[in-house]
Design goal:
The protein is an alpha+beta fold and 413 residues long. The protein has helices at residues 6-14, 17-33, 42-48, 64-75, 121-126, 153-159, 169-172, 175-187, 193-201, 211-222, 227-237, 239-243, 251-263, 268-276, 285-291, 296-310, 319-326, 331-340, 343-354, 377-391, 398-411; strands at 36-40, 56-61, 78-82, 87-92, 95-101, 103-106, 115-118, 136-138, 147-148, 161-162, 190-191. A hairpin with a 4-residue loop joins strand 3 and strand 4 (87-92). Helix 8 (175-187) packs parallel to helix 10.
């Protein structure tokens, strides 16, 4: 796309080749059809902040699903359509573009999903959550590369402010309260004073948000590099206790999030969820699980964490005793305990996750009959005893294991 203005050039330079190819094909198709398309929202914000944009969000002044269908066919990509909202996602081979028909929105009731109406790019920008996300630039046509900023988003970027577009914004969609804290934490910004006052005023509207939508917003928060920053802000604003009175988050729990990333970086996406419920007392845990729409695995981990906090291994417990307690619980709950507990319990949980759970005998079940263990239930019992012996250092070599098994077999005769 020779001659593209500076913002277009900056966009292309920031994207991998696969994204550039898909975007170029999209612009070509839009030009052929006389359809105006715009990069909108987060990618524009991130470009202006010299951050790498994530997935591309494109607004279409026309039928986005039809244009996406042609793009998928032309570029041999997958497509997922969402007819109700006039949106589609095209992806594959390293490319990912979200297309949406430019629209206006009306809300029939607080907390309800909006009713959408095809409209102009100007209306589309005015329906958005915050001014820093209400910018676009044209990808084609006579205005290619021109920044559209009807709400003063660039000035708020320069000032480091998160500001809503109108006074009823949080009433229309209270998930914006959760997003405000997320953007503030991610970008290192602060919520603008008048927006803060509106947010606090409209906290009760969080009660209109369905558990499924609350879950989606919290899941996005937990994907952040340091999600505890947003969670601490939500606690400070009173949003967590509005979601449920038993939800609390403090700096000590925030530190546990950081420890979890250090000791179990691959476990964070599953172990963050039980950590969110760390301070929820047993009588309220089921209500919190329901309010946050936790999945079965997330709910099991939250329940298990309650149990482990009351029934952790005793101080000085042997490795085999420790393993027998933790092995029966979801790994996410044990990781959470290793991050947030104190003293011996933290050390035991950490030792189990990084060492004990990977300790297994050299002998297998099919090795035992030759050592005198009869087939059936006895095989499992001997293997469990053998693993305990290995955890506690009673056996080290295969010969040690064989001697122990023969002795156990003789005792059972």
């Amino acid at each position: 796309m020779p001659g593209s203005p500076k913002l277009i050039d900056k966009l292309l330079a920031s994207l991998p080749k696969e994204q550039v190819n898909a975007l170029s094909r999209l612009i070509e198709l839009a030009n052929q059809r006389g359809t105006a398309i715009y990069l909108v929202g987060g990618p524009v914000r991130d470009l202006l902040l010299d951050l790498l944009p994530g997935d591309l969000d494109v607004a279409v002044e026309g039928d986005a699903i039809d244009l996406a269908t042609h793009l998928a066919a032309a570029a041999d990509l997958r497509i997922v359509r969402h007819a109700r909202f006039g949106t589609a996602t095209v992806s594959g081979d390293g490319a990912h573009i979200d297309l949406a028909t430019a629209r206006s929105e009306t809300y029939e009731a607080a907390g309800a999903l909006p009713t959408v109406h095809p409209s102009s790019i100007d209306d589309d920008l005015h329906r958005r959550d915050f001014t820093v996300n209400a910018m676009a630039f044209a990808l084609n046509g006579n205005a290619v590369g021109r920044l559209l900023d009807p709400a003063g988003g660039r000035a708020n970027l320069d000032a480091g402010l998160i500001r809503v577009l109108h006074d009823a914004s949080f009433q229309d969609d209270a998930t914006r309260i959760l997003r405000a804290a997320r953007y503030e934490a991610r970008l290192g910004f602060r919520i603008e004073e008048a927006t803060h006052d509106l947010l606090v005023r409209d906290l009760p509207f969080l009660e209109t948000i369905s558990p499924a939508r609350v879950h989606r917003e919290l899941a996005r928060t937990l994907l952040e590099r340091e999600p505890e920053r947003a969670l601490l802000r939500l606690a400070d604003l009173g949003a967590l206790r509005t979601l449920h009175p038993s939800l609390h988050f403090d700096s000590e729990l925030g530190a546990a999030f950081g420890r979890l990333r250090e000791i179990g970086p691959r476990a964070v996406l599953t172990a963050y969820w039980p950590l969110v419920t760390w301070q929820v007392a047993q009588p309220a845990i089921e209500r919190v699980i329901t309010r946050l729409a936790l999945t079965r695995r997330q709910a099991d981990a939250a329940r298990a964490l309650r149990e482990l906090r009351g029934n952790a291994p005793r101080p000085g417990a042997s490795p085999s005793e420790t393993a027998s307690i933790f092995a029966a619980q979801p790994a996410a709950a044990v990781w959470a305990l290793a991050a947030a507990a104190s003293g011996a319990v933290r050390e035991q949980a950490h030792a189990y996750m990084v060492t004990y759970r990977s300790v297994h005998p050299l002998l297998r079940g099919d090795d035992l009959p030759a050592l005198g263990v009869p087939p059936g239930k006895a095989v499992g019992e001997v293997l469990a005893r053998l693993r305990a012996a290995k955890l506690d250092g009673e056996v080290r070599t295969r010969a040690d294991e064989e001697r122990l098994v023969r002795g156990l077999a003789r005792n059972d005769e």
